[in-house]
Design goal:
Length: 81
């Protein structure tokens, strides 16, 4: 067991710094604004659907559908999902 730990943390093996650098390089390639935009879009749509289902007024349901349609027109296709 000590040999495995020394291999991972030792100067001849894979070091913790190398693992951290690899993780940061992978995380740096991710387009975070797109992921955040999609997450927020799905969150807004889920909230609208929840509010529309809690209200017996058809106006609220139609308003939720209209807002969802406007999100899709604005270039947010994840509003459909």
């Amino acid at each position: 067991m000590k040999k495995i730990i020394s291999l991972i943390t030792g100067p001849a093996g894979l070091t913790i710094k190398l693992a951290i650098d690899t993780f940061l390089a992978i995380a740096g390639r991710i387009a975070w604004p797109i992921i955040i935009e999609r997450f927020v879009t799905r969150l807004v749509v889920a909230g609208l659907e929840y509010l529309a289902s809690k209200n017996t007024n058809t106006l609220a349901t139609e308003t939720a559908r209209d807002i969802r349609a406007e999100l899709v027109k604005s270039g947010l296709p994840k509003a459909i999902e």
